[in-house]
Each structure stands twice: as C-alpha cells, then as structure tokens.
Amino acid sequence: MAQATSPPEVVKEDARTRRGYSSDAAGLGSLRAGAFVAPALLLIAAFLVFPALWVLYLGLTNYRLTGAAAAEPEFVGLANLLDAVFNPTFWNSTWLTVQFVLGSAVIGQVVLGFTIAWLLRDRAGPLKRLVEGLVILAWILPSAVVSFLWVALLDRDGGTLNALLGIPGFPWLLDHPMLSIIVFNTWRGTAFSMMLYGAALGNVPPSHLESARLAGASGWQQLRDVVFPHIRGHILTNLLLISLWTFNDFSPFLLTAGGPDGRSEVLAVHVYKVALQSGELGYGAAVSTIILLINLVVAVFYLRLLRSKK
Amino acid sequence: MTRFVLGRIGFCTLIAVLLAFFTIPLLWLVTAPFTSDPSYEVKVPDFTWDNFQAVVEHPYALPSLYNSLVLSVGTAVLVVLLAALAAYALSRVRLPGRDALLYALLLLSSIITGTAAMVPLFQLAVELNLIDSHLGLILILTGGLLPAAIFMLKDFMDSTPKSYEESARVFGASPLQIVRHVVVPLVRPGLATIGVWALANVWGNFLMPYLLLSDVEKQPAAVITYTLYTEGGQANLSMLSTFGLLYSIPVVLMYLFVSKKYGFRFHGGIKR
Lengths: 310, 272
Prior knowledge:
The structure holds 2 protein chains of 2 kinds.
Chain A (H helix, E strand, L loop, with lengths): L9 H12 L7 H30 L9 H4 L7 H7 L2 H32 L6 H15 L2 H12 L5 H6 L6 H4 L1 H26 L3 H9 L4 H12 L1 H16 L4 H5 L10 H11 L3 H29 L1
Chain B lengths: L1 H30 L18 H8 L3 H32 L5 H14 L2 H14 L6 H25 L4 H8 L4 H12 L1 H17 L2 H6 L8 H10 L6 H25 L11
Helix pairs in contact in B: 2-12, 3-6, 3-9, 3-11, 4-6, 6-9, 7-8, 11-12
C-alpha cells in the first residue's frame, strides 16, 4: 500500500517538541485537536488497522472465495498456519523471497546505489544530472510501464538484450525467472539508495578524507576507515527500508506472474495466487499473517536501533 | 601518472556501463510509439502518429487515464486535508497518548502493506459494497497513505515557528481562523510535497485497483496497461508502447517540476 516513508528523525523530534514547540499557539484546545485528528484516525482504523487484525482472524478460518466455506466459514485454528509450514510451495516462495530480497535489495540496490553516489560525489554538471536523472526515471515510472519495458527488453526473439548479446532465442524469463526479476528490481529501486548515500556522503567531513589521502590511504582504505564509519547509520536505515519494501513488492507479478511453474513466485505473489486466484482466502490470510509478523520484526528492530542511536 | 590514467579509464567505463544499464530498458518506450507496427525490437522509428491515433480510438485507454487522474487527485486531496489537520493538532496540542499514537502510526505505516492486507481489504470492499467504486478505492488508498503523511507533515509543522499564530491570537483571531489564514500559508510547501507524493503513489499503484475494480470502464491506466498486455494472448505492442508513454509523461513532468521547485533530494535525513 503506502510506500512507507519511515522518518528516522522521529525520536529527535520528540526531544525538540518537549523543548517547547508543542505549545498550543493557536489556542486549539484538546477538544478541537481531537476533532482534527479523528477523521484521519478513523480512516486509518477502518482501512489499515482493521484489515490487519482481520487478516489474523481470517488466517484461523477455512474461508474461501466460493463454495460452501464461503457462506459459513469455520474456525480451524492453526490448521492454515500448519498447512503453510508443511507446504513445499510456501517454503519455495519463502526461499525465492529471500533470494529476491538479498539479490535485488541488499546486494543490487545497495551496492549499485552506493557506487553511483560514490562515483558522482564531488561532481556537478551535466554528467551527474544525466546519470541521476536516468536512475530516478527508472524509479518514478509506473510499475505497469516499466515491467512491460523489461518484458520487451528480455523478449526471446526481438528483445534488445538478446540482440546486444548476439544470442537470439534465449528465453530469459523462462530459463532465469529469478535472475530476471532480481536485475529488474535492482534497476527499478536503485534511485532510493543512490539518493540516500548521496546525502550521507555529503555529511562526511572532507577534511577527514583529505588527511587519509595525505597519509597515503588507498581508495578502498579511505572507504573502509573514513567513509563507512561515518555513514553506518544511513547504511542501516537504507538496508532495513529497502528490504521491507522489496519483501512486500508485488511487481514481480507483472513481469513473470510467478511463473514458470512457480519459479519466481515470491511471497507477495504467492498470497495473491492462493487467496484470490485459487480462492483459499483462509490459507492466504495465514500466509499474510506470516508476512505481517516478518514486517513487524524488521520494523521494531529498526526503531530500536534508531532509538539506541540517539 | 599511470595510476591516474587507469583510474580515469576505470571511471569512464563504469559510468558508461551504468548509463547503458539504465538507458537500454527505456529505449523501447521512446522508439516503439513512433514506429509503425512495432515489435519488441528497438528500431529507429519512422515517426508515425498512427499509434497515438489508435490509443485515442481505443474505448478504454483515454478513459483509464482519466480514472487514474480521478483516483490520484481524489486521494491526494483527501490525504493532504486529513493529514494536515491531524499533523497540526498533534504538533501543537499535547493530546493524551500522543507519543504512543505516533509510534503506532510509524509502525503501522511500515508493516501493513497491500501485500499483507490484500485479502481482508478485498473482503472489506465486498462487504461495504466498495468494489468497483472509485470513492471506496480512494478511501482505502487514503487510509494506507495517511500514517506516513501525518508523520512527514508533523515533522514539517514542528519546525515552523509558532510566533505568527501567537500574534494572530493576540489580535483576536479564532483558532479556526488562525489555522486557515496563518498556518496553511506557512506550511504550504509541506502540503505540496505530501500532495505530490500521494499523487505519484496512486498514479503508479497497480495492486489495489487491480484487486478492487473489476469494471474495465473504471480501471485506471495501471490496470489497463496490464490488460492490453495479456488479452488475447498476443500483446498489442503499438497500443502498449504508446499508451505506456502517455501514462508515463505526467509523472516525468511532475518530477521535473518538483525537482526544479524544491530540489529532489534528501536533506540529511530521509525525507522532505
């Protein structure tokens, strides 16, 4: 749903508000303030909190989209969760999701995003604007469009990639579906990491780099001893956010629809397929519960780290 | 000296590879719409306008762009309005349980995603008769975007000085007048940012409309693109590329506008 924009400054914010920003300058009063907050909270409760709670309940029933169980769903307890745990398809999807997150977010986007930010760090002018503009373009175009661009790129007969490599007829999406969606998602999402690291590198004091250089440190040594310690917090923020987003990303569906034979069916696609295509809403909800729990663990871990940093 | 030359060559190669990686997938989008009877191949276009003609004549193509517009503008307006009210109140008034509420909002916005909530949202929409309703989809999308929007806006409001509000109060303005005539103009850049963010988010959203709108006449461009792609087994490439281009142009324009006006980068933290 929302691309969660998780602000790491929240904790700091509170300290600031306590120092006096919090005073009710317009004389709003608690009652009016409550009325201001209420409509937003109502919508959040109805369309965000309630669905999340409902998914927990649904996961405990045998609810189906059609048939007898659709009319009168029965409570089946943990049966769905156990089904998932003993279902090889679920584990296959989980494993594919791990590959997807590690390959495209942790390795692809972080490494590529950092590399671009590092290469362009003290540059200005048209080259920087061109590279950044293209990377950002890949990020902001609608996912329905970019996924089709990649279908065209990877097409076995006319696709640009095969034409460039001189191997016409090579079916990328059929033979290497995971590699395809990993590279696709790297291309798609690098912009965020690039911008984050670009901002982070701007905060590394040039004098530290200068003295390292004068002391004869090589490029790699400068990175390891000066740059990385400075931007550790940013790396962490970046890693957690993009892992969370990639983990919940539905766009692989647009490229491979989970196929062939479920070989690129990451968890997001798996839920869609079992719940809304096969109609097993109860089982789908149980898998959603697992996704929610994983999200929760990552988010709490992230907030903890933020708090301990301050 | 050799080291410098080698570094220079390495740098140029890397940049060239990066440029190629990010450009090549986009080539098709800029050539195929202007090519008559395009294939997946990237060819030098013969600059025809026939494909645009076909898009204009397609019964669902242009209406779907209109649907996208309705959904994104509707959601953006609602998000800005509700988030601004809530963020202002949370920023200025110390409501009981405020910090816990903010913490919960932050958690919610990052853990409840369309992926995790698609089953209950689908059911909820069925129960409330919101399937195939633009208003229903707008409400659902708004609910999803609000926590993050409140967060970003509260941050923004916290950093605006409250002295204007105080002096307006001294001159006898009522709280609601102050909000309307003093606070809103002050935080306008923040409101604009949130509006653009919500607009772009909904414009590109595929999953929610795909789940909740089954009537072709109501589907936004994201979903229509996908139906052009699978319907009848064969993808209609001239339609797809041209429609994709038309569908992309607004986001690109918006990006250019935002980056010109506010600068499209992170300042220190992550947002703003």
